[in-house]
Amino acid sequence: MPHDFDQSRRYIRQTIFAPIGKSGQDQIGAAKIAVVGCGALGSAIADQLARAGVGSLRLIDRDFVEIHNLQRQSLYTEADVRNRMPKALAAYERLSLVNSTIEIEPVVDDLNSGNIARLLDGADLIIDGTDNFETRYLINDFAVANNRPWIYGGVIGSYGMTMTIRPGITACIRCVFPEAPPPGVAPTCDTAGVIGPIVQLVASYEVSEALKYLVGAIDKLNTGLLAIDVWQLTSDRVPTGGPNPTCPCCGLREFTYLNAPADDRETVLCGQDSVQVRLANPVEIDLGQLAKRLSGAGEVVQSKFLLRFTDAATDRELTVFPDGRAIVRGTTDGDEAKRLYATYVGN
Q1: Residues near 326 by Cβ (< 8 Å), separated by ≥ 6?
Q2: Annotation marks residue 189 as catalytic
Q3: What is the rounded radius of gyration, in angstroms, for the C-alpha atoms of the chain?
Q4: Cβ neighbours of residue 210 under 8 Å, at least 6 residues apart?
Q5: Rounded to an integer, what distance in angstroms lies between the CA atom of residue 347 and that of residue 123?
Q6: Structural domains present in the chain
Q7: Residue 343: is its pLDDT beyond 90?
Q8: What is the pLDDT of residues 121-168, one digit of tens each?
Q9: Which residue among the candidates 38, 189, 249, 270 is catalytic per the annotation?
Q10: Which of 158, 109, 151 is closest to 129 using CA atoms?
Q11: By Cβ atoms counted within 10 A, which residue in 106, 107, 151, 194 is the most buried?
Q12: DSSP state, residue 59
């Protein structure tokens, strides 16, 4: 794509920072990073990585932008809420305007054991922008099994944590947190809230770790669990040591989460009044042909990334993606979602 300004000066303030320099910027530009989750942390992380010039970003998220996201999710606008934009696509569109010289790939899907190898294929580094331990343990299993570094981050209220994990060198997340907290025990953003400053701070720590790793400043990486509370003005750094020989993941290499069966093909999306329908095997759907076929049955809006169809009879909305996945809005009944999918998309 042609540019009407001098691209050579885009990263000048970053390259004159001695620990990065021109050679470090070249390494950043050659890197491929997968950001899992494009909510509060993930959107802030993706924004900073795109501006820093990371050559290839894969943004993975299954959710849509909602009005309550705007308080802390810095990439999104009220227009994204009105248009029911998937977060990964909204992030892609915004960041493409920020930096058109890098490759950004939006993936509207949830990471699971059935697709993780495909979605994280080729990533030099994985960064956590998720909000649940199940997905983090899955990332951890994949990273350890494939000797891939990843950066954990989490926020709740005014409190946040981050940890940089290098398989075989540092402790993994299950060395530190052997088991996920039981459902209903740990606070969530829905029950305890979260404020924007802790999101931006933890995201900044995660991105700074990523930049250090990419330029080879390994001696500067975080070697423990960093915990911060912006309301109480406290910070703690807890040493985590090396891999624990008795850890189920990096010690015993059991990979419980990676080897688990993939999630059900119908997944109710929390708080969305929607069900995701996923095919056992991804297919390639011609969205243009599907749009023609559905045009007489309801309202159809199509882009290169998705087709959105509103059923005139039931007012249910189907958002269909090129790989055959769909999100059915207006129901939390998996059977109804499957019936609508079969009726309008096919089996």
Answers
A1: 276, 277, 318, 319, 320, 341, 345
A2: yes
A3: 21
A4: 33, 49, 54, 125, 127, 151
A5: 33
A6: 7-239 (3.40.50.720), 266-344 (3.30.310.10)
A7: no
A8: 999 999 999 988 889 999 999 999 999 999 999 999 999 999 999 999
A9: 189
A10: 151
A11: 151
A12: E
